[in-house]
Amino acid sequence: TMSEKNIMFVIASLFAFSILLFPNLAEADILIKKNKLTESTVMGQIQPAKVEEGKTWIAKNKMREDIAESSIIVRLDLNKIYTIDHSKKTYSEIHLPVEIDKVFPPEAKQMMEVMRIKSSSIKKTAETQIIRGWLCQKFLVEVEISMMEMNLPMKMEIWTSTGLGIDLDAYKKLSGAILSLNPFTKNLAEEFEKIEGYPVLTISSMNMMGTETKEQEEVVSVEKRDVPAKTFNLPKGYEKIPYNPFE
Protein backbone atom coordinates (compact mmCIF):
# COMPACT_ATOMS: atom_id res chain seq x y z
CA THR A 1 0.00 0.00 0.00
CA MET A 2 1.01 3.55 -0.50
CA SER A 3 2.08 5.29 2.68
CA GLU A 4 1.29 8.86 3.60
CA LYS A 5 4.94 9.77 3.14
CA ASN A 6 4.84 8.38 -0.42
CA ILE A 7 1.77 10.43 -1.30
CA MET A 8 3.32 13.63 0.04
CA PHE A 9 6.52 12.85 -1.84
CA VAL A 10 4.59 12.33 -5.05
CA ILE A 11 2.74 15.63 -4.85
CA ALA A 12 5.05 17.96 -2.96
CA SER A 13 8.48 16.75 -4.01
CA LEU A 14 7.79 16.23 -7.69
CA PHE A 15 6.30 19.70 -7.78
CA ALA A 16 9.46 21.05 -6.16
CA PHE A 17 11.66 19.12 -8.60
CA SER A 18 9.75 20.49 -11.56
CA ILE A 19 10.33 24.08 -10.53
CA LEU A 20 14.09 23.52 -10.58
CA LEU A 21 14.30 22.64 -14.27
CA PHE A 22 15.26 25.63 -16.34
CA PRO A 23 17.46 24.93 -19.39
CA ASN A 24 18.16 28.65 -19.76
CA LEU A 25 18.26 29.51 -16.08
CA ALA A 26 21.65 31.22 -16.28
CA GLU A 27 24.98 30.93 -18.02
CA ALA A 28 26.55 29.82 -14.75
CA ASP A 29 25.72 26.54 -13.04
CA ILE A 30 23.76 26.80 -9.81
CA LEU A 31 23.77 24.99 -6.47
CA ILE A 32 20.72 25.25 -4.21
CA LYS A 33 20.88 24.07 -0.60
CA LYS A 34 17.82 23.45 1.55
CA ASN A 35 16.62 21.89 4.78
CA LYS A 36 13.65 19.56 5.22
CA LEU A 37 11.89 18.93 8.54
CA THR A 38 9.40 16.05 8.92
CA GLU A 39 7.14 15.67 11.96
CA SER A 40 4.49 12.98 12.42
CA THR A 41 1.90 11.91 14.97
CA VAL A 42 0.68 8.28 14.95
CA MET A 43 -2.53 7.54 16.88
CA GLY A 44 -1.87 10.56 19.10
CA GLN A 45 1.77 9.65 19.75
CA ILE A 46 4.33 12.23 18.60
CA GLN A 47 7.18 10.64 16.65
CA PRO A 48 10.78 11.93 16.69
CA ALA A 49 11.27 14.78 14.22
CA LYS A 50 13.51 14.12 11.24
CA VAL A 51 15.77 16.77 9.71
CA GLU A 52 17.32 16.22 6.28
CA GLU A 53 19.60 18.35 4.14
CA GLY A 54 18.98 18.61 0.42
CA LYS A 55 21.01 19.84 -2.52
CA THR A 56 20.06 20.69 -6.07
CA TRP A 57 22.57 21.16 -8.88
CA ILE A 58 21.45 22.87 -12.07
CA ALA A 59 23.31 23.18 -15.36
CA LYS A 60 22.03 23.72 -18.89
CA ASN A 61 19.41 21.03 -19.64
CA LYS A 62 20.47 19.07 -16.54
CA MET A 63 19.44 18.90 -12.90
CA ARG A 64 20.15 16.70 -9.90
CA GLU A 65 18.18 16.70 -6.66
CA ASP A 66 19.50 14.90 -3.55
CA ILE A 67 17.54 14.38 -0.33
CA ALA A 68 18.54 11.76 2.25
CA GLU A 69 19.27 8.48 0.38
CA SER A 70 17.41 9.41 -2.80
CA SER A 71 18.36 11.31 -5.95
CA ILE A 72 16.59 12.40 -9.10
CA ILE A 73 18.71 13.23 -12.14
CA VAL A 74 17.06 15.01 -15.04
CA ARG A 75 18.80 14.89 -18.43
CA LEU A 76 16.74 16.94 -20.84
CA ASP A 77 19.60 16.56 -23.32
CA LEU A 78 18.84 12.81 -23.33
CA ASN A 79 15.06 13.13 -22.74
CA LYS A 80 15.49 10.97 -19.64
CA ILE A 81 14.91 11.11 -15.90
CA TYR A 82 16.69 8.80 -13.44
CA THR A 83 15.39 8.04 -9.94
CA ILE A 84 18.05 6.61 -7.62
CA ASP A 85 17.94 4.81 -4.26
CA HIS A 86 21.47 4.92 -2.84
CA SER A 87 20.58 2.72 0.15
CA LYS A 88 19.62 -0.15 -2.19
CA LYS A 89 22.04 0.83 -4.98
CA THR A 90 19.22 0.77 -7.54
CA TYR A 91 17.98 3.18 -10.20
CA SER A 92 15.08 3.55 -12.62
CA GLU A 93 15.14 5.17 -16.05
CA ILE A 94 12.15 7.08 -17.43
CA HIS A 95 11.96 8.38 -20.99
CA LEU A 96 10.32 11.73 -21.74
CA PRO A 97 7.55 12.24 -22.53
CA VAL A 98 6.32 9.68 -20.00
CA GLU A 99 4.15 6.87 -21.41
CA ILE A 100 2.39 5.38 -18.40
CA ASP A 101 1.45 2.08 -20.07
CA LYS A 102 5.09 1.40 -20.96
CA VAL A 103 6.76 2.74 -17.83
CA PHE A 104 4.59 1.64 -14.91
CA PRO A 105 4.72 -1.94 -13.54
CA PRO A 106 1.41 -3.83 -12.96
CA GLU A 107 1.28 -3.02 -9.22
CA ALA A 108 1.55 0.71 -9.99
CA LYS A 109 -1.25 0.50 -12.56
CA GLN A 110 -3.37 -1.35 -10.00
CA MET A 111 -2.77 1.42 -7.45
CA MET A 112 -3.80 4.02 -10.04
CA GLU A 113 -7.19 2.32 -10.31
CA VAL A 114 -8.00 2.82 -6.62
CA MET A 115 -6.51 6.30 -6.20
CA ARG A 116 -7.51 9.58 -7.78
CA ILE A 117 -7.46 13.29 -7.05
CA LYS A 118 -10.98 14.20 -5.99
CA SER A 119 -10.42 17.96 -5.89
CA SER A 120 -7.65 20.55 -5.92
CA SER A 121 -7.41 24.30 -5.52
CA ILE A 122 -4.68 26.94 -5.48
CA LYS A 123 -5.22 30.37 -3.97
CA LYS A 124 -2.91 33.37 -4.15
CA THR A 125 -3.08 35.34 -0.90
CA ALA A 126 -2.20 38.95 -0.16
CA GLU A 127 0.33 37.87 2.48
CA THR A 128 4.02 38.59 1.94
CA GLN A 129 7.12 38.21 4.08
CA ILE A 130 10.90 38.32 3.79
CA ILE A 131 12.43 34.81 3.96
CA ARG A 132 16.22 34.44 3.82
CA GLY A 133 16.41 37.90 2.29
CA TRP A 134 13.87 37.21 -0.49
CA LEU A 135 10.48 38.92 -0.68
CA CYS A 136 7.98 36.05 -0.81
CA GLN A 137 4.27 35.71 -1.65
CA LYS A 138 2.03 33.13 0.03
CA PHE A 139 0.01 30.56 -1.96
CA LEU A 140 -2.37 28.01 -0.44
CA VAL A 141 -2.83 24.59 -2.07
CA GLU A 142 -5.51 22.10 -1.06
CA VAL A 143 -5.70 18.62 -2.58
CA GLU A 144 -8.14 15.85 -1.69
CA ILE A 145 -7.12 12.33 -2.67
CA SER A 146 -9.64 9.51 -2.87
CA MET A 147 -8.24 6.05 -2.08
CA MET A 148 -10.40 2.97 -1.57
CA GLU A 149 -13.40 5.13 -0.57
CA MET A 150 -11.29 7.15 1.89
CA ASN A 151 -10.73 10.88 1.47
CA LEU A 152 -7.19 12.02 2.24
CA PRO A 153 -6.88 15.81 2.55
CA MET A 154 -3.52 17.46 1.95
CA LYS A 155 -2.66 21.12 2.46
CA MET A 156 0.38 23.04 1.25
CA GLU A 157 1.49 26.55 2.17
CA ILE A 158 3.97 27.74 -0.46
CA TRP A 159 5.99 30.95 -0.14
CA THR A 160 7.49 31.87 -3.50
CA SER A 161 9.80 34.62 -4.73
CA THR A 162 10.30 36.08 -8.20
CA GLY A 163 13.53 37.74 -7.11
CA LEU A 164 15.91 34.83 -7.69
CA GLY A 165 16.56 35.54 -11.38
CA ILE A 166 14.77 32.38 -12.52
CA ASP A 167 13.24 31.96 -15.98
CA LEU A 168 9.65 31.20 -15.00
CA ASP A 169 8.46 30.80 -18.59
CA ALA A 170 10.93 27.94 -18.99
CA TYR A 171 9.54 26.39 -15.82
CA LYS A 172 5.98 26.40 -17.12
CA LYS A 173 7.04 24.66 -20.33
CA LEU A 174 8.95 21.97 -18.45
CA SER A 175 6.79 21.38 -15.39
CA GLY A 176 4.14 19.43 -17.29
CA ALA A 177 6.70 16.89 -18.48
CA ILE A 178 8.20 16.40 -15.03
CA LEU A 179 4.86 16.24 -13.24
CA SER A 180 3.84 13.52 -15.70
CA LEU A 181 6.16 11.18 -13.80
CA ASN A 182 3.09 10.41 -11.73
CA PRO A 183 -0.56 10.34 -12.80
CA PHE A 184 -1.62 12.39 -9.79
CA THR A 185 0.82 15.23 -10.30
CA LYS A 186 0.11 15.10 -14.03
CA ASN A 187 -3.46 16.09 -13.27
CA LEU A 188 -2.21 18.92 -11.07
CA ALA A 189 0.17 20.42 -13.64
CA GLU A 190 -2.36 22.93 -14.90
CA GLU A 191 -3.24 24.02 -11.37
CA PHE A 192 0.39 24.49 -10.35
CA GLU A 193 0.96 26.81 -13.29
CA LYS A 194 -1.03 29.39 -11.33
CA ILE A 195 1.78 29.62 -8.78
CA GLU A 196 4.14 32.48 -9.54
CA GLY A 197 7.79 32.40 -8.55
CA TYR A 198 10.21 29.95 -6.98
CA PRO A 199 9.24 28.06 -3.77
CA VAL A 200 11.50 29.35 -1.00
CA LEU A 201 9.44 27.75 1.79
CA THR A 202 6.92 24.91 1.44
CA ILE A 203 4.88 23.61 4.40
CA SER A 204 2.81 20.46 3.75
CA SER A 205 0.41 18.54 5.99
CA MET A 206 -1.61 15.37 5.49
CA ASN A 207 -3.79 13.10 7.60
CA MET A 208 -4.09 9.42 6.70
CA MET A 209 -5.64 6.67 8.81
CA GLY A 210 -4.71 8.20 12.15
CA THR A 211 -1.29 9.40 11.06
CA GLU A 212 -0.69 13.12 10.65
CA THR A 213 2.46 14.17 8.83
CA LYS A 214 3.89 17.66 8.47
CA GLU A 215 6.80 18.59 6.23
CA GLN A 216 8.64 21.88 5.95
CA GLU A 217 11.19 22.48 3.20
CA GLU A 218 13.15 25.73 3.04
CA VAL A 219 15.78 27.03 0.65
CA VAL A 220 18.89 28.00 2.62
CA SER A 221 21.09 29.35 -0.17
CA VAL A 222 21.33 29.79 -3.94
CA GLU A 223 24.80 30.22 -5.41
CA LYS A 224 26.39 30.22 -8.84
CA ARG A 225 29.25 27.73 -9.17
CA ASP A 226 30.67 25.28 -11.69
CA VAL A 227 29.07 21.83 -11.38
CA PRO A 228 31.24 18.86 -12.51
CA ALA A 229 29.70 16.99 -15.47
CA LYS A 230 29.90 13.68 -13.56
CA THR A 231 27.33 15.04 -11.09
CA PHE A 232 24.64 14.28 -13.67
CA ASN A 233 25.84 10.75 -14.48
CA LEU A 234 24.44 7.54 -13.01
CA PRO A 235 26.50 5.98 -10.19
CA LYS A 236 28.54 2.98 -11.29
CA GLY A 237 27.50 -0.51 -10.22
CA TYR A 238 23.85 0.28 -9.47
CA GLU A 239 21.10 -2.16 -10.55
CA LYS A 240 18.40 -1.00 -12.95
CA ILE A 241 14.82 -1.70 -11.80
CA PRO A 242 11.35 -0.75 -13.17
CA TYR A 243 10.08 2.67 -12.13
CA ASN A 244 7.28 2.57 -9.55
CA PRO A 245 6.00 5.94 -8.27
CA PHE A 246 4.19 4.25 -5.38
CA GLU A 247 7.23 2.78 -3.67
TrEMBL record:
Pfam families: DUF4412. Residues 60-238 form the DUF4412 domain. This is DUF4412 domain-containing protein.
